[in-house]
Specification:
The longest helix is centred in the first third of the chain and has 15 residues. About 5% of the residues have low confidence. This protein has 7 helices and 8 strands, in the order E-H-E-E-E-H-H-E-H-H-E-E-H-E-H. The chain is globular, with a radius of gyration of 15 Å. Helix 1 links the parallel strand 1 and strand 2. Strands 1, 2, 3, 4, 5 and 6 form a 6-stranded mixed beta sheet that branches. It has one domain: Rossmann fold (3-Layer(aba) Sandwich). It is α/β, with parallel strands linked by helices and about 170 residues long.
């Protein structure tokens, strides 16, 4: 069975997570491929679909949001997983429901984060300023910067496989 993993990334963490998820699914015997939404439209003929992207200032990456809205009907016809790479701990079901609609979120077999990094050297512009201030203050509060979360990637793979296997 074929699984498409489409992602939108700003600093590369979502790309890394998408490739790792593809590797996990491939190791389990599935044909999985990661597609950068900046490079064009991904393969929509797959048996299942994963859509992910980074979160900045409480907003899911614009390319991921636009793709979800534009392809809602097609995404509702197959098992769907949604992920975000972020350092915060906000509830993604609520955040995604506000940004792409409740229908897709309710349909998704997996909605969670894959971790994130807050590396100053990868930031530009206003993002760099905010990350610098957060790191300088030493009060990251609800932020986690431990990189990608392989445990959640495995949970995503498990959910997709359960949805694909009759």
């Amino acid at each position: 069975m074929k699984i498409t993993i489409a992602y939108a990334t700003k600093t590369g963490t979502s790309a890394q997570a998408a490739r790792q998820l593809a590797d996990i699914l491939t190791a389990r015997g599935y044909e999985a491929a990661a597609y950068d939404l900046a490079a064009g439209k991904p393969d929509m003929t797959a048996d299942a679909f994963v859509l992910g992207g980074s979160i900045r200032m409480g907003r899911w990456h614009g390319r991921a949001r636009r793709f979800a809205r534009a392809n809602e009907a097609a995404l509702l016809r197959k098992p769907l997983a949604l992920f975000a790479c972020r350092c915060g701990k906000e509830d993604l079901r609520t955040l995604f429901a506000k940004q792409i609609g409740e229908k897709l979120v309710a349909h998704a077999v997996f909605v969670d984060g894959f971790g994130g990094d807050m590396l100053l050297e990868k930031q530009k512009g206003l993002d760099r300023f905010f990350v610098k201030m957060a790191l300088k203050s030493g009060e990251n509060g609800e932020m986690s910067t431990g990189g990608v979360d392989e445990q959640n990637m495995n949970a995503c793979a498990d959910a997709l496989i359960r949805a694909l296997v009759p």
